[in-house]
Amino acid sequence: MEVLERKALVSGIGQSRIGKRLNVDPLALTIDACLEAIEDAGLTRDDIDGLSTYPGGMVPGAPGFTGAGCTDVQDALRLELDWFSGGPEQPGQLGSVINACMAVATGMAKHVLCFRTVWESTAQGGGPRKGIGMSGGGGGKGFRAFGPMQWTLPFGAASAACWIAMFAQRHFHEYGTTREQLAQIAINNRRNAGLNPNAIYRDPMTLDDYLSVRMISSPLCLYDCDVPVDGSTAFVISHVDTAADLRNPGIRVEATGTALRGRPSWDQFDDLSTMALRDAGAMLWERTDLKPADVEVAELYDGFSFIALAWLEALGFCRRGEGGAFIESGSRIALDGEVPLNTHGGQLSAGRLHGYGFLHEAVLQLRGEGEARQVRPGGAPDAVPEVAVAAAGGGPLGGCMLLVHD
Amino acid sequence: MSDKPFRILPAVNEENEHFWKGGADGELRFLRCSACSTYVHPPAPVCPQCLGREVAAEAVSGRATLVTYTVNHHPWIPGFDPPYIVAIVAIDEQDDVRLTTNLVDCEEADVRIGMAVKVRFEDVGDGVFLPLFEPAG
Asked: Is residue B3 one of the residues assigned to a domain?
């Protein structure tokens, strides 16, 4: 099997400022991230011949769910593109980056700019977090739910919080997983966020803090839910043959997982306690000789804490159903543990950059640019991880990437 | 949930009206394959089992099993006040046909995954009847 994604490098990374209620045009944030990524790659905008994003510019969702689409960025930067793609029907947010890998691997483009912008904090204002379908005409008397949303919105299941909560409850039921175990994801990420000056919430969190905060959708409490922010993240994905033109050696893409072998649905998927992550994770390991034990840092989607637990299982860091016991002590997923998890604080504490933040952090870690939160495999002061996994998505959406710094 | 909450209603069309309007006759209806009897949900113009193209709406018993649930405490929708129980149930006739719904007339402490439930329709106007579920015991 030819693993075409190995023709792709993450050649540049960029990120706008990240914050709550920045009240900045989301396209401006997008351009900040994009220009930084191009600069970081050692390229100019004239080198960019591909553009990719998730979920694109014309998608209903919670207010601020999409800050910019391909047409916005192409026009603002007057890019001359040979290839572009943006849309929500992808294997999670990183599906758009994996598409870019395939575009360079197949000769459709040489340097693809990928971006993801959210401005949910500004768009949702100071009130409670809004449900899906609450943007545009959503919520008014004349609004009707159509497509997949018709099966959930009439019942007040208007957020992935409710859907993921039901998956977590099922996992609790089947495997005896507890809230005390799940808390370790939030506590770990908060601890790491304390070392990340760009994180949103940096004060330490105790188990008591976690157990006493208000419930959102049982068994998920407030600290199991990520924090809406404004911000944009961008990457340049380049063909390996362009390496001589690049400023950085580039991070090689070793394998990707995009599979969805069950039903593409939040409530009909065969195994609710694994979700689609099961298939994406399995596919990733089918495409490489590396093993889970080779991974030195794991940046796993935590739009809700339970999703990170499910990714740990799906990627084979522990067996199915054993995620709760695996994280229970907190030590295995700590910065100096066997699977350092969400080293920047994840979306739970560093902000909901919606998938792209995990790949950004994985690249920083592999380059040794993690500063106070840099993972040091084996404990040597100058050691830098060589293998990282970045994964994004939950429910029926999941995509993951195995990255190597040779 | 004694008072009826504000509900976002589904957009009813030819493909889904058997489901959303079946409650007017007290019936929970799904499409079913004429060739191999597989229930098809959400509605599609093909049987996922045998690829037969003849599917027609048919009533089921309304009995189901609770697959999982959550007690929602957050006000996602103005006018639909928490707390309320969101559940996924699988119908007795075919356990891979599931519905997201509300479990009603059940205290949180009494909810058990695997419990038997039965349908109860809520008339929400415009001819739409939402299938809610209550303990069958």
From this structure: no
A9 forms bridges with which residues in the sheet?
A238, A252
Q: Cβ contacts of residue A282 below 8 Å, gap of 6+?
A: A257, A259, A314
Establish if B105 belongs to a structural domain: yes
Q: How far apart are CA B33 and CA B22, in angstroms?
A: 18
- For residues A40-68, give the mean pLDDT: 91
Asked if B38 and B94 count as a contact pair (C-beta separation under 8 A), the reply is yes
What's the pLDDT tens digit per position in A161-178?
A: 999 999 999 999 999 999
Q: A151 to chain B: nearest residue by CA?
A: B100
0.95 surpassed by complex ipTM: yes
pTM higher than the cut 0.90 = yes
Amino acid at B135: P
State how many domains chain B has: 1
Q: What is the largest CA-CA distance in chain A?
A: 62
Domain spanning A4-124+226-404 has what CATH number?
3.40.47.10
Residues contacting A259, CB < 8 A, separation 6+: A91, A276, A279, A280, A282, A283
Determine, for residues B76 and A134 on separate chains, whether the beta-carbon distance falls below 8 Å.
yes
Range with the lowest mean pLDDT among A119-123, A183-187, B59-63? Answer: A119-123
Q: What is the pLDDT of residues B74-125, one digit of tens each?
A: 999 999 999 999 999 999 999 999 999 999 999 999 999 999 999 999 999 9
Q: Is B2 within the bounds of a domain?
A: no
Residue with tokens 């949180």: B108
| Amino acid residing at A77 | L
Range of the domain at B126: 17-135
Task: Tell me which residues of chain A have a C-beta less than 8 Å from any C-beta of chain B.
Answer: 128-131, 133-134, 138-139, 143-146, 148, 150-159, 161-163, 165-167, 169-170, 173, 214-220, 265-268, 270, 272
Q: Which residue has the higher pLDDT, A147 or A39?
A: A39
